[in-house]
Amino acid sequence: RLRDEYVLKPNGDRTVSKMENSSVWSIQLCGDDQQWFELPDLPPNRVRWYRDDDLMPDDTLKSIQVAMPGIYYANITNIISGAESNTDKIFISQTPQLEKPGLLFQDGKLHSATAFQCRWYRNGRSNAGVNGAYPTPTKAGMYTVATIDGDCISEVSEPIYVGVSVYPIPA
Question: Whole-model pTM above 0.85?
């Protein structure tokens, strides 16, 4: 077996998590995203990449770019000793591009027609003091919303102005 330094490392800022009760790692791609994986530079080795246990014959370099769902790993063989090892497996899932949500203000509440989690903004700032699917804003401003599915986030909606009435407290 080769040294443990042969760890498949994703490039970029994707969240990598270990799947429950498994030695397989997981990454979610969004829309047309692609992900690079790179092995350390530890020659002299032969690298063979696999997707869903099928050899990818044209991919023999220390890095690979993936854009399709599947389970990926590399087999590394030391060309002098013949020792070989596989990297950990990484499961790539792919979420379709999230559509830009619609937004409206009705009955004192913001409404976004989405089945996903919402990230609300007021005047361009995230977490605008409003949470949930139908929040009631307490401050005036330009509100927008984006939908979130795992690591994937949509474009923000068109803005909508919300004014907040403040009633005097009777003495």
Answer: no
Query: Residue 150: how many CB atoms within 10 A of its CB?
Result: 16
Q: Dihedrals φ, ψ of 81, to 5°? A: -90, -20
Between CA 147 and CA 154, with CA 148 as vertex, the angle to 5 degrees is 55
The pLDDT, as a whole number, for residue 15 is 60
**Distance of CA 39 to CAs 26, 46, 165, 171, Å?**
17, 12, 59, 72
DSSP state, residue 90: E
pLDDT tens sequence across 59-86: 777 888 888 899 999 888 888 888 888 8
Please work out, in degrees rounded to the nearest 5, the angle formed at the alpha carbon of residue 146 by the alpha carbons of 126 and 159.
80
Q: Is the CB of residue 143 less than 8 Å from the CB of residue 111?
A: no
18 pairs with which residues across the strands?
25
Q: Give the largest CA-CA distance in the chain.
A: 90
Question: Looking at this protein, which amino acid is placed at residue 145?
Answer: V
Residue 156 DSSP symbol: P
* 109 and 86 Cβ atoms separated by less than 8 Å: no
Q: Which two tokens stand for residue 151?
A: 């690591």
List, for the chain, all residue ranges whose pLDDT scores fall below the cut of 50: 1-5
> How many CB atoms are closer than 10 A to CB 7?
10
Looking at residue 1, its pLDDT comes to 40
